[in-house]
Amino acid sequence: MSSEDRCEGSPHVDKVLFIECGFGNDSHGQDATKAAVRACRNAIEFNSIPSIRRLVPGGYDELKLDVLLAVPPKYRDTLDLTRVQEVFPYGSIRFQIQDGGMIAPSGIAIESLGDKKGSDDMVVVCAAVTVGH
Q1: Would you place residue 49 in the very low, low, confident or very high pLDDT band (cuts 50, 70, 90)?
Q2: What gap in Å lies between CA 23 and CA 125, rounded to an integer?
Q3: Is this structure's pTM higher than 0.70?
Q4: Closest Cα partner for 35 from 119, 113, 126, 128?
Q5: Which terminal residue of the chain, N or C, has fewer Cβ atoms less than 10 Å from its own Cβ?
């Protein structure tokens, strides 16, 4: 896949096969990328779709994914979509980012685990992955 096949942009799935949802968090470190990676893995990790070659004309080469991420605005600048896209082993991907997710207290700031000085924020990201062609 070229980098333009895996980018932020408008949805491009015309024929939806299924939609999977997940959530992820970074308990220490306030990293939206880590939370988004976990959310995407949570959405897809328990699936096996052996019939993709029969369902999608062109098989895995023509598979399309629209990934909607709900990210707390305060931590949007820590989101690295290049790292998030690595969760998906195949498919042309389009990301859309919206305000959402959650910031919750972890109860303790631990700088050795990556927490910013004095911050006990837990960053939670929600993902919806639309799979189709």
Answers
A1: confident
A2: 6
A3: yes
A4: 126
A5: N
Place of tokens 């980012």: 97
Give me 71's structure tokens: 């990210």
The full 3-state SS of the chain, as one line of letters, equals CCHHHEEECCCCCCCEEEEEEEEEEECCCCCHHHHHHHHHHHHHCCCCCCCHHHHCCCHHHHCEEEEEEEECHHHHHHCCHHHHHCCCCCCEEEEEEEECCEEEECCCCCHHHCCCCCCCEEEEEEEEEEEEC
Cα separation, 81 vs 90, in Å, equals: 15
Report how far apart the first and last C-alpha atoms of the chain are (Å, whole number).
15
Give me the half-sphere count of Cα atoms (radius 13 Å) on the Cβ side of residue 116: 9
